[in-house]
Request: fold
Amino acid sequence: MVQQDKTADIHAVIRRGKRWDYLFAAIGLICLAFGLLTVLVLVGKMGLEGLDRLSLDFFTSYPSRRAANAGILSAWVGSVLVMLVTAFAAVPLGVGAGVYLEEYAKKNWVTDIIEINITNLAAVPSIVYGLLALGIFVYQFGFGGSILSAGLTLALLILPIVIVATREAIRAIPGAMREGSMALGATKWQTVRYHILPYSMPGILTGIIIGLARAIGETAPIITIGALTFIAFLPPLPLVEGAGLFDWVMSPFTVMPIQMFNWTSRPEEAFQINAGAAGFVLVVMTLGMNALAIWLRYRLRKNIKW
Amino acid sequence: MNPNQHPYPVKAEARKLNFFYGLVQALKAIDMPLYERQVTALIGPSGCGKSTFLRCFNRMHDLYPGNRYEGEIVFHPDNTNLLSTEVDPIEVRMRIGMVFQKPNPFPKSIFENVAYGLRVRGERNRRVLDDKVEQSLKDAALWNEVKDRLKDMAFNLSGGQQQRLCIARALATDPELLLFDEPTSALDPIATASIEELMHDLKKRVTILIVTHNMQQAARISDHTAYMYLGDLIEFGKTDEIFIKPRDKRTEDYITGRLS
Amino acid sequence: MTENSVTDNSWGGPAGRVSPRLAKNALRNWRERLIEGLLFCMAAVSVLTTLGIVYVLVKESIIFFQHVRIVDFLTDTRWTPLFDDAHYGILVLISGTLVSSAVALAVAIPVGTIIAIYLSEFATARVREVAKPILEVLGGIPTIVFGYFALMVVTPLLQRVLPELPGFSLLSAGLVMGVMIVPYVSSLSEDAMRAVPMSLREGAYAMGSTRLQVALKVVVPAATSGLAASYILGISRAVGETMIVAVAAGMQPNLTFNPMEPAATITSFIVQVALGDLPHGSIGYLTIFAAGLTLLLITLTLNVIGLWMRKKYREHY
Reply:
């Protein structure tokens, strides 16, 4: 009889436990749905709001005092050029640093400092990079509020991302690959050049794309270095009308997020519509890059089985 | 096999048990009884399916997707197939305890580790918990070593103590059947001896199924032994018979090959 | 070792000069070292970055503190650096930063933790495969877009429930910031929980636990330091976040702990000054470096604690 009561008791306990299980699973799904919903509402709101403005003219017009005529020509060109500088600086530096740390670095205090430093940099607020750039690039080096300053700033900002991605990709390569190459008499650099880098390239590429996607959406550090918000011209084309090959890097500029910020902070509703449209383009750019990276990583996991 | 012909009542019985990891069949039509208050040992080379078989009893395979059971494990006195989809694995695990290969104490105090199963069963009465924890630790021959530091983290115990703690944890809920999955393979010889001694005492109150790849251990502690090979149950019988004159050539090869 | 034992060597005595075919190739050796040096310099750039940050912030702050007493900076309750009657009480900016961060964390920590537990302990592989990219996407959205979202969607929505809410407020900026931080918290927390060995879970399941019991009584306690690290890195994100507060929280300095009010944060103040046209070296220009140094010190402290905790949970298993 007592035994009977006890089993009935346990049944009740299990039933209660399972109810909590279901309840929690439901809450978990709601939280996830909440995230998904945010993405959808966000993109949807900007898309709908800016729909009227999303025409070819929007992409080929300069900003204007009249909202209906304003476009993002200087902004998207600026973003592309800044990304070019960023990639040009961050890719060799990041990959080189990653290769050094994985393949060359000895286990000593110098290496420890570099490693701790990289993890720490990854968590420094982006606006602090802006202050660094303001002090060093803009004034110390005299680059001013130019594409070069912006590109280098963002390069430093995404350096940790590229380094970490490079290291992870390299670490996934089995040690036997290195030994195989070295056993054939290759030097360390030849091993890196002909084996390590090619095999880890997809992973590194993923990291670079994610880093650039992050850079293209960054606003704060670029505001800090004094990017202008109203630019009605494009940087000089190389070798045209007497311009040098690299004159464009010293040109004043604006970028997509700054253009959007500028329009968002205007009180007139017409500019808010422009902000929505610009935001939509910006999100499509970053999400497109992220999607590319995610796809690349997914494919990579499927293809390579060591 | 007719249970009535045997002097011991049957606690559980596998009938035509097949098990699949995805498409790979790991157990092939196993028929085997577990006798009440007896120690049954599963032996065989690595990968023969002995751990897989053991983990069917408390439905551990349900935790991972893609696993599939066929056939039955009939549990007495309920006379119920444990593998039936209508049976709740949680109910099963409430009555069948398990001790793992590597000691896996929870990140809690010694006391809370032993009290865990009772708390999961909704026990809140402090007196009951205290008594039960003390009794279980005594049953697991650990009480004298830990009685003054029940609030210490379980991680601070030695490997052998951790494993005895895991046994105490399993005993606290009065399981009807205890599954041991190579419980001493991560322990030194002295700790192993104390666990073996413990199992010997435990069989007075609980049915035991143990996987071991140490044949001397099987010979020392078990009443019945099953030899498995590549997912098949090759031979099952009284331990002394299996070890002294196995009926199957493969069993003999395995035993002599290793013992000689 | 004596001469004797060497000559006893059955391989025919001591080796002579190194055969030229086996000697070190000076050119190759030199080239390899050059490459290694070059790669080291690349790795050192990250250290230079840190040094540069510290150098710039400290250098400009020193000049700033020649004009403003540190005591005033830390205790004054007004922040009016651009007025004639200038006051430099950083507490005003810190209060805005604290309130917006607190609101953000009130969203991000529970939601992030629940998502992490759900993904690590409840979800099927397929749900995980869909959910994780979505969260990554959420984490990849530019913050200026979140700012727009706060201003244009969340504030009007909140105003329906709270009619007295102004157009700019720490509340709506904080809420949206919370959503932005969810992916950071959830992904780091999930990593920490996945690092808990399966054997621990099996032990708990074998005792007849339900999923939630396994998650809350075994996995979460085992992952505590990892969870704490994820929260701390979340806090550090919130404190350093700029554009959302710059767009949606208003930029007027306001010593308040009421999230229903608009206020400036350390970051939004820097943006505000940078948008204006301050001459290089003026006191207004210098304030942003002092503010930046404060921000760096806060986040650095948080990061160090976070990293230390993360290391702790890695050591455990």
